[in-house]
UniProtKB/TrEMBL annotation:
Species: Glycomyces tritici
Domain EamA residue range list: 11-140, 153-283
InterPro entries: AA-Vitamin_Transporters, EamA_dom, EmrE-like
Membrane-crossing residue ranges in chain numbering: 40-60, 67-90, 96-115, 124-144, 150-170, 182-201, 213-234, 243-261, 267-286
Membrane topology category: Multi-pass membrane protein
Keyword Hydrolase: no
Name under which the protein is recorded: DMT family transporter
UniProt-listed SUPFAM superfamilies: Multidrug resistance efflux transporter EmrE (SSF103481)
Keywords: Membrane, Transmembrane, Transmembrane helix
Family recorded in the similarity comment: Belongs to the EamA transporter family.
Cellular compartment(s): Membrane
Length: 306
């Protein structure tokens, strides 16, 4: 793995990690008053409008053709599918556990990138996967004993796959400005979330509780607009599997914030399982060495990610 010398990327990484650490807690508060898909629609609909306004101020061009199709697909995966599943899961599980499961995203991104010919397979990836899977098994014991439905855990893991695949997809798309990609992607996701909210029979109400309003404001401005613009900047410079390391550090922030604001219990299974997941991701996706999985050379198509 190449030394990290890009200070801008490192700053973007740190910013995305800290801001995203409060996302799951904000979603938990939102879910207490708003139905999940409706809350997700309000979040990404508002964030899309804000980003479109920023696009106008910056005079950024709207993507066309293949770039537009790819940006819409990125939005559907990264915001529509992943957050539909995440909002559903966070009705039943605490933010710390939810974010800990999302720590599998770097390994998932690495393995998906290998499967799709973007990166070479490393033996360490297999070891890391097994260690991280053991961590998930440990973390999952407490919620299963508490009668949390298995579909909830499957939804959280489905969100991981959607996040990971969207990161891999970005590297195959024509170059699009991060603000534009997020604006168009969130707008596409908002349409999907609205349709899902309608199909689910959600109550279409605006938040009345002060806590919900503050939570929604946070996940729109800090947790969506700022976080994902910074995240795309990291993907541009570091690649999918390394950028997804954001999801490894986020649980450390989320667990603390959740314990402080949402009374999340710091159980033994969570405290033991979380380090196992983090260790597995480090070994599988981040650790340097002779068998590092450098990106494969680009083919004749020469498409570059954002």
């Amino acid at each position: 793995m190449q030394p990290i010398r890009d200070r801008a990327a490192l700053a973007a990484f740190a910013g995305a990690t800290l801001l995203a650490g409060g996302n799951a807690v904000g979603i938990r508060f939102s879910n207490r008053e708003l139905d999940p898909l409706w809350g997700a629609f309000l979040r990404f609909g508002a964030a899309a409008l804000l980003l479109l306004a920023i696009m106008a101020v910056m005079r950024l061009r709207f993507p066309r053709g293949k770039a537009l199709a790819g940006t819409v697909l990125f939005g559907v995966l990264n915001f529509g599918v992943s957050f539909s599943l995440a909002y559903y899961a966070l009705v039943y599980i605490h933010a710390g556990l939810g974010q800990t499961l999302l720590a599998l995203a770097p390994l998932a991104a690495l393995l998906l990138a290998v499967a799709q010919g973007q990166e070479r397979f490393r033996g360490a990836a297999l070891v890391g996967t097994l260690v991280a899977a053991a961590g998930v098994a440990v973390v999952s014991q407490a919620p299963l004993r508490a009668d949390v439905p298995v579909p909830v855990l499957l939804a959280a893991l489905g969100a991981v796959l959607a996040f990971a695949e969207s990161a891999v997809l970005v590297k195959r798309l024509p170059k699009v400005h991060p603000v534009t990609m997020n604006a168009v992607g969130m707008a596409a996701a908002a349409v999907l979330l609205f349709a899902g909210s309608f199909a689910a029979g959600d109550r279409w109400v605006l938040p009345e509780l002060t806590a919900t309003r503050w939570a929604l404001a946070y996940v729109v401005v800090a947790g969506s607009v700022l976080t994902f613009v910074l995240y795309l900047m990291v993907i541009q410079r570091w690649g999918a599997s390394r950028a997804a390391y954001v999801f490894v550090v986020i649980p450390l922030v989320a667990i603390g914030v959740s314990a402080w604001l949402d009374d999340e219990p710091l159980t033994v299974s969570l405290l033991v399982g979380a380090p196992l997941i983090i260790a597995g991701v480090y070994v599988g996706a981040l650790r340097g060495g002779d068998e590092q999985g450098a990106s494969l050379p680009e083919g004749p198509r020469g498409d570059r990610g954002v």
